[in-house]
Amino acid sequence: SRVALERNNLVAWQQRVRNARLFILDDLQQLAGQTTGLLELRATIDELLANGAQVLITTRLEPEHLPNLSPAFVARLQSGLSLALQPPGPLVRTELWLRYAAAQQIDLQPA
Fold first, then answer.
1. What are φ and ψ of residue 30, in 5° steps?
2. Is 13 helix (H, G, I), strand (E, B) or coil?
3. All residues at 6 or more sequence positions from 98 whose CB lies less than 8 Å from its CB, including other chains
């Protein structure tokens, strides 16, 4: 959303994103400290949920530890399912890369 705000394309961004059936935001912490972006995100999440969309947000920190998130927004984020996930280990990562390479028809051999 930061790019859209910077380019004054907010209305176009809102129309495209707020009509989605699935909204995924990776690395919420990158918006922490951007008051305008966070306000827009909260409004977007509220509208998406009101329209029955699914919302998935990832962050490396728990929402209450992110700077400049209002207590109301933290509570909103915590009202859904919250999971702590560990990154996959080296064997799983290797297998994922091999499968991706095969799907892209890239000849990649494990070390």
1. -70, -20
2. helix
3. 108, 110
CA 40 to CA 65: how far, in whole Å?
A: 20
Helix and strand numbers (H, E) in the chain are: 5, 2
The band of 48, judged by pLDDT with boundaries at 50, 70 and 90, is very high
Give the count of beta carbons closer than 10 Å to the beta carbon of residue 41: 19
pTM of the entire predicted model = 0.68
Rounded CA separation 56/77 (Å) = 10
d(CA 51, CA 48): 5
